[in-house]
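WARN retry 2 of 3 for item q-0093 after timeout on previous attempt; input resubmitted unchanged.
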Amino acid sequence: TKHQFMCGNWLMIAPVYKQEETTEWSFYLPHGKWTDFSTGKEYEGGKTITGYDVSDYKYPIMAREGAIVPMYPESYYDDNRKQQKPRDPLTIDIYPSQVKTQFELMEDDGVTYKFKTDYRFNKTLIECEPGKENIININITGLYEGSGYKGMPKNRNYYLQIHGDKPKSVTIDEIKLKEMKKAKALEKATDGWYFDSKTYIAHIKVKEKKANSSFSAIILRNSTDY
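OK item q-0093 returned
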């Protein structure tokens, strides 16, 4: 286990460190329920996983139940440490559990130290909490802490990716979203949701919001399985 590590409390990474060609890998998973970040396959922890396929040059990244993982679009930084793509949309990957979990996303200009000296940053609070009668409550609080920063977007688009069974309905701020039958239909829409039956992920597109605003999502599921 000395070559694997935790990234925070929710992500376990087991890089392939051998120089020779390797097609299978082994690693230890701590206790709990885990989901393969790349394939969506679920694992029960507390044991060593053997025969993990790494022939496609992907190493194991496992998300623990309860994980909240915010993600920007893929990008790179120039010589001045400036990101070459906007931080939009913000995709939030969520692995619901039977207890409340939360994540504080801190953002600043990425260049200066004004987040220390002038309080120039923004924290967004992301919370996921199980409710009664198969309900999952998700709350996003923009500008939860901080005073903003230079270059901070005025508006933001959100995509929520909820792992688990297909929802019965999805509601954003008490407005019921339309279910799309195809992923392409969701791409063209301003909001709505689509369930991928292969990966068991509900993709939820939220209508553009003010970056410092807040909103709530209610996902009604068919069962209480997490």
